[in-house]
Specification:
The structure holds two protein chains of two kinds.
Chain A: H1 3-40, H2 50-65, H3 68-74, H4 76-83, H5 89-113, H6 117-125, H7 130-161, H8 172-182, H9 186-214
Chain B: H1 16-19, E1 28-39, E2 48-59, E3 63-67, H2 74-81, E4 89-94, E5 97-98, H3 104-111, E6 114-118, H4 129-139, H5 144-157, H6 173-185, E7 191-195, H7 203-220, E8 223-228, H8 231-237, E9 240-245, E10 248-254, H9 255-260, H10 265-275, H11 281-284, E11 296-305, H12 312-320, E12 325-334, E13 337-347, H13 350-362, E14 367-373
Parallel strand pairs in B: 3-8, 3-9, 6-7, 7-8
Antiparallel strand pairs in B: 1-2, 1-4, 4-5, 9-10, 11-13, 11-14, 12-13
Helix pairs in contact in B: 4-5, 4-6, 5-6, 6-7
Classes of the chains: A mainly alpha, B alpha/beta.
């Protein structure tokens, strides 16, 4: 493979990492509080607001059931508004964030719901405020689950990022389609797939390692 | 005692006018004032009257057991004390504060003076023993250096000074509950609520934890409220007891008084758990209704009170000149009082056992004739 092609792969890898990294950060920034709220706002819960909970649940489900490629084109005007353009890696971060935030929110909700309700009662019994319960009890206790959720979200984002090539987003998926498929360069296609597999493996391993490190639940001597 | 009247645990019945000055009474740590608690119907489940007509006082510095079967309303009752639940009607006065009227920040401040321990310990798995104990102090906004000193002191108090950096998963059940107790005491509360705190522990560990609670009550003067379904817990630790059944207080008073003269069937069934009300199987199977030549009549004597029963067999034999066989005996001590039963075999003639029963009733021993054995 020529040095130019290798350079293309390296450049596309960085584009993918850039899109996925920023989208994961933004997706977490929106998805984490949303997930915590979804997990704590049913009737009788810490931030009880059953109607808001219902409405947000419907919005999250709607966002999650829209196929990503349709979401990308459907929100082009919004993308243009936020990013100033609808083409390129930076613009692609907008749909990636919008797709990942509800996904992360559901994963966060599930992880937070795993925390024993007795701990919330315990913290309440010694006078913890709802926010103190979130930051001192729920998030630390759910941390292993939250890290695994984030890992899953990053892996999914890597998959999504391959699709934003359709709107000029760049990245590995774009490279694979344009060179590997349209110019019929199977070695390019193979290289892109290998890099993606390696990235997914790396992300999953790091995520598993971190989740294991913070999990004190099953430690025995 | 009538459940509809106001009464105090181990105290004379409060006259109605005293209720108006409830908060001023220095002796009451917790006062339940005409409490009822109803859970409304929700999602097809019918509403539940969890508590009704609850009126009693928990004296300052006491160890009071609240005993009842599951569903009797014990958990609701204890959660009214620290404001985790609100009464539907009535007031709960804790240390002079009407906790049932507080909300938000005021309630959270009041909750710092009420500690609670739980059946399943409820420790944070992500925090070490020391950091678990530190949690209520962090929440109360203590300075780091003060927290550190207080946590060390508390770990020593509960006897696990060497477990400072251990995570809950590395601790035994008894050690976890010691961490729970230390955490509950961290903010120097005046009341400690125990919600079935020993129900998940083996008997030996239970005894050790109850001893620890007794010494905390003795040395720190903390009022302890024990919710339990286990008679052994009340017997070992409590001085006062409240018996709950179907959301109502059916009996309350000093443990010794309540369990030497149990009135309500529930109280009697709890007592039976300790002293047993059934005969040994081998004896029960031999008892028949008709006397046989040379057989014995079987008499059961209830033993209630300090020193009761010590000499009854010897005196019976001596004063009536009878051969008395001891067939079965079970006597235990509750609140310093002897409680139990003796099953005696006496010569199986009608006139003899009538004489024996008359003699026993003369000395105030409740007794019954069970039948005959060959």
């Amino acid at each position: 493979m020529s040095p130019e092609l290798i350079n293309l792969i390296i450049q596309a890898t960085f584009e993918s990492l850039y899109m996925v990294g920023i989208a994961a950060l933004l997706g977490t920034a929106f998805g984490l509080p949303l997930g915590v709220f979804l997990a704590t706002s049913r009737k009788g819960e810490l931030f009880a607001a059953p109607i808001v909970n219902r409405v947000l649940g419907i919005v999250v489900n709607a966002a999650r059931s829209t196929p990503f490629i349709i979401l990308v084109v459907a929100i082009i005007p919004f993308t243009r508004l936020v990013a100033g353009t609808s083409i390129g890696s930076t613009a692609a971060i907008v749909p990636l964030t919008i797709a990942s935030a509800p996904f992360i929110a559901r994963l966060v909700e599930a992880a937070i719901r795993e925390v024993d309700g007795g701990l919330i009662e315990t913290a309440s019994s010694f006078g913890a405020s709802p926010l103190q319960i979130v930051f001192k009890v729920l998030i630390p206790e759910a941390l292993p689950g939250l890290l695994l959720a984030l890992t899953l979200a990053v892996v999914s984002l890597l998959g999504y990022s391959a699709m934003v090539g359709a709107v000029g987003g760049g990245g590995l998926g774009d490279l694979g389609i344009r060179y590997g498929y349209q110019r019929f360069m199977p070695e390019m296609m193979l290289a892109v797939v290998v890099v993606l597999i390696a990235l997914v493996q790396l992300v999953q391993s790091v995520g598993d390692y971190l989740a294991r490190r913070v999990n004190r639940r099953l430690r025995h001597h | 005692m009538n459940a509809h009247q106001s009464f105090a645990v181990g105290q004379p019945i409060a006259p109605p006018e005293a209720m108006a000055h409830a908060a001023a009474e220095p002796d009451a740590m917790v006062r339940f004032d005409s409490i009822s608690k109803t859970y409304p119907a929700y999602r097809g489940k019918p509403g539940v009257n969890a508590l009704q007509d609850i009126d009693f006082v928990i004296p300052r510095g006491s160890i009071t057991g609240v005993i009842g079967r599951s569903g009797a309303g014990k958990s609701s009752l204890v959660r009214l004390i620290n404001g985790l639940e609100k009464p539907t009607t009535g007031r709960v006065i804790v240390d002079g504060n009407d906790i049932s009227s507080l909300a938000g920040r005021e309630l959270r401040l009041a909750q710092r003076s009420i500690g609670m321990i739980f059946q399943h310990f409820n420790l944070l798995s992500s925090r070490t023993a020391a950091d678990n104990i530190a949690l209520p102090l962090e929440i109360a906004g203590w300075a780091k250096v003060d927290i550190k000193a207080r946590v060390t002191e508390l770990l020593a108090l509960v006897g696990i000074g060497d477990k400072h950096d251990r995570y809950p998963s590395e601790l035994s059940g008894g050690q976890k509950q010691r961490v729970g107790i230390a955490r509950a005491l961290a903010t120097r509360p005046s009341v400690l609520l125990s919600d079935e705190a020993t129900s998940a522990l083996d008997p030996q560990t239970t005894r050790a934890i109850l001893d620890l609670l007794a010494s905390i009550n003795r040395e720190l003067g903390v009022t302890i409220v024990l919710i339990t379904h286990e008679m052994s817990v009340v017997r070992q630790l409590a001085r006062d007891v409240v018996v709950l059944d179907a959301g109502r207080v059916v009996e309350s008073g000093h443990v010794a008084d309540i369990f030497t003269r149990p009135q309500h069937p529930i109280t009697q069934s709890f007592l039976a758990e300790v002293i047993g009300d059934s005969l040994p199987v081998s004896l029960a199977s031999r008892i028949v209704a008709e006397p046989s030549a040379g057989g014995q009549a079987v008499i059961r004597i209830q033993v209630r009170g300090a020193g009761a029963g010590d000499t009854v067999v010897a005196r019976l034999a001596r004063e009536l000149g009878l051969d008395v066989a001891l067939l079965s005996a079970r006597i235990d001590e509750i609140g310093g009082q002897h409680v139990g039963s003796l099953v005696l075999g006496i010569p199986g003639r009608e006139d003899v056992h009538a004489r024996v029963l008359a003699w026993l009733s003369q000395y105030q021993f409740p007794a019954e004739h069970l039948g005959y054995v060959a």
